[in-house]
Amino acid sequence: MPGTRPARWVAAVPMAALALATIYPLVFTTNVAMKTRREYVLDRFSPADSFSLDNVVKAWTSVGMSRYFLNSVVVVTCSVALLLLLGSMAGFALGRLRFRGSSALFLGILAALFVPFQVIMVPLARTMADTGLIDTYPGLVLAYVAQFLPFTIFLLTSYYATVPAEIVDAARIDGNSVYGVYWRIMLPIGAPALLSVGVLNALFCWNDVLISLLMMPSAEHRTLMVGVTSLRGQYSDDIPTFAAGVLIAAVPVLVVYLFLQRQIADGVTAGSTKG
User: Is the pTM for the entire model greater than 0.90?
Assistant: First the structure.
């Protein structure tokens, strides 16, 4: 069609500039992580003389990034599993079952989405300290669940609300209880939404710094992102080692985005259409 090609160029040029601005920090960080300290001081922007992983090995072994990485894997795995279990049960109940107060409960969950964590961080920290959960894995997991559960329930409720009522009625006629319908019908049907929400929550928990720093003050229990931020002060004169730590933290997120980008996009729009 006439005018289509210029219109594409008008859209392509700013998108290409945006893509370049997004990719350049990763390329720059990778290049710095491959340099020695001397090479970085002499010229921080020039390409590295050799492709060396010495800084990555140093950050992984000597600096303690391996321990931080393991802490993040344990916390994120447990948090996502608990979020999906509680979120799917609540989403099924609010999306498909009708009981007194369900609408008010759902509105309350929506209202919780608008409460910044900074508003509740002091009461949360005091509660966790009083119950002895500060600087423990269960404490951080529960903090993540409390923070991201409203988002999980909202998306899964929207998804389960689109499931035809005839499916639930047929399952009840076949003799399934409410729990049977949830376990045998709704969980398999909701697998795409569960995968999408699970990926989003994993990214949220993995990239978090504030909650982890509040709940895990000791160096032994730091998560990966908190460990990376601590490198900036500890190795302020060794930027290549700091860049290597950033690279270690970024690679898992990049892999997730690369292979599950469709699921991430579907998770944002889960339940927005019917049929």
Answer: no
